[in-house]
Amino acid sequence: SRLEDSVKKTVAENPVVVYSKTWCSYSSEVKTLFKKLGEEPLVIELDELGPQGPQLQKVLERLSGQHTVPNVFIGGQHIGGCTDTLKLYRKGELEPLLSKANAK
Amino acid sequence: SRLEDSVKKTVAENPVVVYSKTWCSYSSEVKTLFKKLGEEPLVIELDELGPQGPQLQKVLERLSGQHTVPNVFIGGQHIGGCTDTLKLYRKGELEPLLSKANAK
Ligand SMILES: N[C@@H](CCC(=O)N[C@@H](CS)C(=O)NCC(=O)O)C(=O)O
Ligand SMILES: N[C@@H](CCC(=O)N[C@@H](CS)C(=O)NCC(=O)O)C(=O)O
Ligand code: FES
């Protein structure tokens, strides 16, 4: 579908993409972490897209297997949600992923 | 207002009350913490109350100064949100509050 293609394009062309909701603290935590690491992610706020928001959330579920927010992609690769991202960060595995994605 | 009185009554008559939203991870964290501490809070899911949900959220803001969820009351006292509750727990101050509230 066109929406699916647009998501694939978005995550392929941007080193870090966060599908988020503006009111969600888990989404805020992830956005804050990236900023702290000097990364400027592309943030898509699903609650600010009117009816396209829920459609996008469905497409993301089809593509990534994840229906929740935040939904994080680095270097085109699906990373997961807030907990997954923080886990990688604590294991020291997040920053190498970011460097690799930024170098592309 | 009648809704305001009902909130005051709810928090006065129940040792632990959590105003929550079913999809919210911060709300889940707080509910999980109380269960881990052997506490069975009264949980009110604001997203399951139809149009009364947003009204209740406004009343809570008037009464507690807090417009976000989760909104936690212990022994009739406004505690705060997820971060506040976790902070009290880590400082060892949450369990004494629970004992006191349960003893009433
Ligand atoms: N463990 C996941 C939890 C994800 C989750 O439950 N997200 C909630 C918001 S905090 C959600 O997407 N709920 C459904 C919705 O908002 O559509 C994570 O760390 O990201
Ligand atoms: N620091 C607060 C954050 C509270 C917060 O921002 N809650 C969000 C959901 S995670 C909220 O209520 N957003 C507005 C809404 O859902 O109406 C806490 O720990 O509870
Ligand atoms: S909506 Fe509360 S943490 Fe996501």
Automatic annotation (TrEMBL), chains A, B:
| Keyword flag Cytoplasm | no
Give the Glutaredoxin domain ranges: 16-79
For this UniProt record, the keywords arranged alphabetically read as follows: Redox-active center
> Out of the domains of life, which is the source?
Eukaryota
Q: Does the keyword Flavoprotein apply?
A: no
Give the residue spans that cross the bilayer.
Answer: none
Q: Which protein family is it in? A: Belongs to the glutaredoxin family. CPYC subfamily.
Q: What is this protein called?
A: Glutaredoxin domain-containing protein
Native source organism of the sequence: Hevea brasiliensis
**Which part of the complete protein is shown?**
69 to 172 of 176
